[in-house]
Amino acid sequence: MLVSEGSHLSVILLSLSSFLLISESVVLSNSNQVVSSMRNARVSRAAIAQIRSTSDKISNLINIAKCAGWAKHSGADMLFLPECLGFMGDNAAHTLEEADPAIHLCEREPRNDELLQNPFRQTVSDVIISHANGTPFEIPKIEHNQRLPSIVKGLQFIARESGMWISGGGVHTRVPQSSSSTEEPKIYNTHVIIDDKGRVKRYYHKIHLFDVSIPNKVNLMESKTTEPGTKLEVCDSPVGKLGLSICYDMRFSEMYVDLVKMGAQILLAPSAFTVPTGRAHWHTLLRARAIESQCYMIAAAQVGKHNEKRESYGHSLIYDPWGELLADAGGYDSVGTAGVLAMPGYDDSPVLVPGIVVCDIDLDKIDSVRESMPIHVHRANSKYTL
Questions:
Q1: pLDDT digit string, tens, across residues 120-171
Q2: Contact 236, 210 (CB under 8 A)
Q3: Peptide bond preceding 374: is omega within 30 degrees of 0, i.e. cis?
Q4: Which of 14, 61, 101, 174 has the most other CB atoms within 10 Å of its CB?
Q5: Cα-trace Rg, the chain
Q6: Nearest to 379 by CA among 229, 256, 249
Q7: Alpha helix segments (H runs only) across the chain
Q8: Active-site residue set
Q9: How far apart are CA 356 and CA 11, in angstroms?
Q10: pTM of the prediction?
Q11: How far apart are CA 317 and CA 330, in angstroms?
């Protein structure tokens, strides 16, 4: 079903696989009542964002606020954001300089004035409300000389203001000197889960670092600036129990076996995947992890050109526990199941961004798949020698 409204080139795409695309190409309508039907207690709604982050933290947070507003409008219970969501630098020194403070769990509900300062705080609030209501809103000129103290605090404010849980798929956070393996300053690549009150409920430091050199294609050494994490994390949420990972982790299947043993129902692999490796492996890896784990797999993605050195493959998506692709926001190669081609002459991204795809998650589907093919039992009972 296609619904359009107004003069903003609005479009909402809804398919039989229960996904919805909302992006800068769309003006929101009142169709959330349509897509909210037929949901029971074990069915929830996930909104998976696709963005193109740069070194401009303020613009990045504004785009995230738009996604939160659209997610709220669509009736989503949780918003999933990609790796490097708040900052994409063009060199290691820049990334280290702009990193967030060390992260901590937060059980106390924070006050708004602890998170963002006015006038930016009011602007972010207005963006969320206007995009949730589908009302036109002209974003005022923002002074970019005001330094944001923390991307995480910005996410906490957006979660609190939208009343929605957020998976912040990758924020650079400082490593406490006592935890660092070297004397050089380093950061963690941190996946943070924030509840609808703005509290940090769980965080995961990326374990497998992307040190890869493919001649004439990719040359990145994440370990130059990043300390690897050492602990797996799961987290209860409104959509189910989440198994946390980041990007390159998806190549290590044994990690997801352990996350399932810890109770994970929904695996998360937020990413800023390179275009060459994305074309070769993105869909294959994520589908395989969903099938072998018998979990939903959600992968929020960066897309397009971030700077002269980095561009990302895109294709924010969700697979179900049987390996069926439920929604794909598109990127390089194709528009997926729901993407919208970028305007002619716009070279920074192959599809319109920011945007979200929205999909229902049915926990009964996980139970059904695992009962019909109990590979977790077969794995536990298997015996072999090396």
A1: 999 999 999 999 998 878 888 877 656 677 999 999 999 999 999 999 999 9
A2: no
A3: no
A4: 61
A5: 20
A6: 256
A7: 32-35, 57-73, 92-97, 120-133, 151-162, 253-261, 275-293, 363-372, 375-381
A8: 83, 206, 247
A9: 12
A10: 0.90
A11: 8
